[in-house]
Amino acid sequence: MSSNTNSSVRERLLDKIRSDKNLPTLGVTISKVIQITSSGEDSVSELAHFILSDVALTQKILHLSNTIAYRTPGGVSVTTISRAIFLLGFDTIKASAMATLLVDGFKDHKQAQSVRKELVQALCASVAAREIARRNRHPKSEEAAVAALFKNIGRILVAAFDHPLYDKILNLSSSDPVQTNEICNQLLGCSFERFGQSVLYDWKIPDSIIFALQPIYGHAKKTLQDSEWIKQVATFSEELAIVMVQSTPGEISIEQGCEQLVKRFGSALDFNATQLEEVFKNVDKEARQLAITLEVPLATLNHVANAPVVRDSDFCNEFMLPAFDAQQLQSVTRHPSGKPSNARDLLLAGVQDATQMLASKQLKLNDLVLLVLETLYGAMGFRFATACLRDLQQGKYTARISVGEKYIERQKEFQFPVETENSIFHVAMNNNVDLMIEDALNPKIQAILPGWHKRLLPDARSFIILPLVIENKPLGLFYADRCLPANEGVPPDETALIKTLKGQLMSAMMKR
Asked: Which stretch is the leader sequence (predicted)?
């Protein structure tokens, strides 16, 4: 086949991928997640907001957070994204979010079996990279996990958009990667890796991730260069995943695969055969649960050799004291206002979340504020919720942390003076009284509803104000609203739980 023909095949396939309605959005979304850095408090809040903006992604992350592979001591279910991030770690949630986006972007393609097999391999590789990076405690561990997830993106794309070509390349290739590259160059015009790199460039994925897609042949040598280390981890992780996913009876055994991996990467990445066996077991356990959560079939994923017949996860799932079912909590009927009918259970789960968070020495006040907001927002069916705190220098109360619809724009404008305004917000704080307004059109409410609120939130029909007052000094308040009146009201048990949530935050604030 001529080079011009090769080039035309590649370009035709790239054009087909670029014209797909879903993939440009997928690329932008994944790029956005990668851009969220793990430094500082704002990144946790930013990642939580990003996940909460996608209902399907929120449900997948909560479901994954409650699987046995991630479940926390005590078996308390994770019901909020903010607690999931706090408990499982920023990197774990971020990698899981990207895996979810990647799988959801491809799982509905016609050639489901081949695409899904490649997706399972990508998931295994990403988990393996995190496992190795966790052992090495390398500062670039997060990038290694992302690179491993994308290591076979070229194969995924070709399988999804030109399955006959994908099949032909694999049928003509052996297990030798060099020969596979030669066949790819003949039929596609470039290797799978180069093809994947082209698309990732279109998606604006960082160069350090794209560089790691380059293959490594022969034995890896120990390196002090971050970029080279990421590439080594990504390559090792892909090959480990291939052993787990692609191996079939009569081909290479997992024991042989382990032996080869130790020879090639053991010295560079500091592991021996015994440690690699432990990595295999952990990857199999975690990747299997991740794939089940993301509805990727696992028929081709082999168990680790000599794995015990009874898994810890199976035993714990059977005999563990049941906690809240997070999925069941999230999928319920609602009142006409939008408030979930099981608001009490959701609030109680939030109180448990806050209790667990308060017990940690790593508690950050902003994380707890976000958790309380997210609980109120979800449990009560609000459309916008914010924590508004006093700014002594400006003499204003200003919104600091918010969730919900248009939270960025509304947070910027949600502010009012400390003095000179006799509004419903001042009434609540001056008297330290929690207010639940069922219908904002009530003339009594309209009379003390400030003009700035009417301009910013003209369609707010029901809302809640929870003042934050310590030793008779107003520090701010929680505010949350809906677009519909809340004729169902707030029964005493829900009120008690809302006050408990607020009390937990006040307790944390007083300790600072």
From this structure: none
